[in-house]
Write a structure and sequence with these properties.
Two copies of one chain form a homodimer.
Chain A: E1 2-4, E2 14-19, E3 32-47, H1 55-63, E4 68-78, H2 86-101, E5 108-115, H3 123-134, H4 141-147, E6 156-164, E7 167-176, E8 189-194, H5 200-211, E9 229-234, H6 248-270, E10 278-286, H7 289-301, H8 303-310, H9 317-324, E11 336-341, E12 344-350, E13 353-354, H10 359-366, E14 370-376, E15 382-389, H11 393-400
Parallel strand pairs in A: 4-5, 8-9, 10-14
Antiparallel strand pairs in A: 1-6, 2-3, 3-4, 3-9, 6-7, 7-8, 10-15, 11-12, 11-14, 12-13
Chain lengths: ~400, ~400
């Protein structure tokens, strides 16, 4: 497997674009993105578990009932959620786009991100469709990625190539997500394309299995958004032998998918609202995977741990505390904790109690911008990994006055 | 029922003191507190549900097995948790105090609060015991309250008088708690005294019932501490007819207890680390009490809601979002939201969707330091209330570098 460039346009047959259509006031910010496949794709998506669901998700779910799609359209600046006519607006957008593309309306995936609770006027979107379609190119992934950004400060894009039965396949993804991100299913907007031939049933299986160890293990602030969606389109244009059952080819596909998703997870965590550091919590020796995940997520979600990491303070007692209240089955007298980064590694807790360590070395380790919180348990063999970020002044600043 | 002064010394037969013994470096901060009853008390306590438990709690639990106590000793500056010899240190402290007071060691309640994971040297505590005991007075509640403060900025003390069978009884409480506070049982240190005569069984019942609607509904930062404890001592010196069964007298006692606990809850929420505003989330119309509580807590715990309140931003979409991911049974299309404060009231959401409202009026309402987030549902008749605070720059500052 190899990391390549091109994002969602890396696979054969996908073109993309992103424009400013006028939903956002700032004209230098793109607010509308489109990804188009030159033929029908097997399609699968997972959605937020929030009971308050964005109207576009309802429409997308309906459109993907048959597992087939051609295009993804997504706006930023308005979540089209908790308003009176959200579903009509989303359907209208799909219909207008479908007509211009000459495809059936139910082959369109639609998504929105931005402020909740305000009506979405479809006028700028529809007025912008000709420009959006006219600008579709096979190097448009970055423009599409820009079109879905909100408080993101970094464009999130990745692609890989992999080999199925001697044929090179490619997979690419773009993502947005910075605040309102929490492990509980699809926790942001992620669009993944691949030219690998795979049935929609197996694509579905791959995605649902993958997110349990990728996007569901990311937390920026504990708030599960109303609009999050991870969608994969597979158009089969690589012409590999089609993946129709579990086995080696499916395993290779899963590995490619996981490379793309974990890569996007790390980008999203690192770009958490106001974040200065990406945190990775690794748990080993847990009694089973479920408990390992509970512990990793509890630590990565703790405001006190997050604030300590911001301050480069090796306050491991807060890690122990977060393990203790996680609800996981764990022998706390067997817990070990180390902090790791490019600058080195420092062990701070053994057998559930503090050990002498150099505060200077700890500070050096924690001053880096990627920190691993390594937790070893004595309960079993299971492992888990979760990603998050530090809690900073800027998180408060960004969220203290987001709308105005 | 009447609010009175005197804190834990308001009831007959209780004296208290707080001194600086030397655990904390800052000599102007008291770090050791003692509350003593002149006779044996019925005693009950509830403890943190965190699996990582402070050593003092283990000792206190043992000592309260018979439901009898005479005194409470508590230090700040070191949590005596996650170290090698915490239980021995806590037992030793109790033994030294008991000897000087001339009471049995197992009548001592012991508690600690402060940094986790460092050994607690009992030397300054034991050296300070004579001064601590020598200074016990019937107006010492404030000194004791100061002795248990950590990052608290405000002393937390309350007392009430109430009437049982024509006899005046009194109840008083002190509390500490500012960070690492979250609804999941005893979420801080709270010591309550009363001269009301009541059996230890009913005292236990009253406390366990009360905390479900008081301390378990407070959240500052979602982190459940390792050392939290709510303890009530009832010495019977008011000489009322003893409360031995549920009925009117018990109901009066419960009401007094709830007045004391909710009052302390509000003080703790208002003094949350870095807080500039106290938030109260009221839920009505829920399908049952359990669901009402889940919703109230989810809203009060949302980082995004908390940051919006800091910025006086009427971003009600985040309230809807927190209701949606709470896991509660709720018809989101029936949700109504209003913000209230001394400055007035503003309705912002009806039937699950936004309504037109004046941003200026909303700002005025939200600029106050006590905000009610009033949520009305259409699912049933149940209500709940939760307390919290805004998320501010200072929370990050306080917790980014707590130890050093």
């Amino acid at each position: 497997m190899e990391i390549i460039s091109g994002g969602v346009c890396a696979p054969l047959g996908f073109i993309a674009n992103g424009i400013h259509c006028g939903i956002r006031k700032n004209k230098s910010k793109r607010d509308l993105a489109l990804i188009l496949s030159s033929c029908d794709c097997a399609a699968s998506a997972v959605y937020t578990t929030n009971k308050v669901k964005g109207a576009p998700l309802t429409v997308t779910k309906r459109h993907l009932a048959d597992g087939v799609a051609r295009a993804i359209i997504c706006n930023s600046g308005n979540a089209n959620t908790c308003n009176a006519n959200g579903i009509e607006v989303a359907e209208y957008t799909c219909a207008q786009l479908a007509q211009r593309l000459g495809v059936e309306k139910d082959k369109i995936v639609v998504a929105s991100t931005g402020v909740i609770g305000q009506p979405l006027d479809p006028t700028p979107i529809v007025s912008g469709l000709d420009e959006l379609i006219g600008g579709l190119t096979d190097d448009g992934s970055q423009r599409a990625a820009e079109g879905i950004m909100t408080t993101d400060t970094v464009l999130k894009e990745v692609a890989v190539s992999f080999n199925i039965g001697g044929v090179e396949c490619k997979m690419g993804g773009i993502a947005k997500g910075s605040g309102m991100i929490h492990p509980n299913m699809a926790t942001m907007l992620v669009f993944i394309t691949t030219d690998c031939a795979i049935t929609s049933e197996l694509l579905d299986k791959a995605l649902k299995s993958d997110i349990r160890n990728s996007f569901n293990m990311v937390s920026v602030d504990g708030d599960t958004s109303t609009n999050d969606c991870v969608c994969v389109l597979a158009n089969g244009m690589a012409d590999n032998r089609k993946i129709t059952e579990e086995g080696d080819d499916f395993a290779t596909f899963m590995k490619a998918l996981n490379t793309v998703t974990v890569s996007l997870c790390r980008m999203i965590a690192a770009d958490g609202e106001g974040a200065t550091k990406m945190l990775e919590c690794k748990v080993s020796g847990a009694v089973d995977e479920a408990n390992a995940k509970i512990i990793a997520k509890s630590v990565i979600c703790s405001s006190l741990v997050k604030a300590a990491m911001f301050g480069s303070d090796a306050n491991w007692g807060r890690v122990l505390c977060a393990i203790g209240y996680s609800g996981a089955e764990v022998d706390v007298s067997g817990v070990g904790v180390s902090f790791k980064s490019r600058a080195g590694e420092i062990e701070v807790c053994k057998d559930g109690a503090g050990i002498d360590f150099s505060e200077d070395v700890a500070k050096q380790v924690l001053l880096e911008d990627e920190i691993v919180i390594d937790i070893t348990l004595t309960d079993g063999e299971a492992t888990a990994c979760a990603w998050g970020c530090d809690l900073t002044y800027d998180y408060v600043k960004i969220n203290g006055d987001y709308r105005t």
